[in-house]
Amino acid sequence: MALDRDSNLNSLGFAKPPAQTRVVVAMSGGVDSSVVAAKLADEGYDVVGVTLQLYDHGAALAKKGACCAGIDIHDARRVAEEKGFPHYVLDYENIFQDAVIDEFAD
Hints:
By secondary structure, the protein is of the alpha/beta class. The chain has helices at 31-42, 57-62, 72-83, 93-105, and strands at 22-26, 46-53, 87-91.
């Protein structure tokens, strides 16, 4: 998508072409974040996908009734790969356990 002729702003409101606008998208692996990342990539933005790993996927898969555990990161990575933008997984499992789960349990 080109700059808006009236305001010289791209669709995100910046005064530069999409290709010169880097957008970091937090990708949970769900539909909403994946669609946003894909649409921005289609518009020509410099998209970077980031997923936070907050739990041990292997342990989650072993739990009865676990929904979607283990596939979310793979889904986000697949979308990034198909659309041709980089995707990074940041391991925040220990920090999340300490700062959120343990704090809440206490």
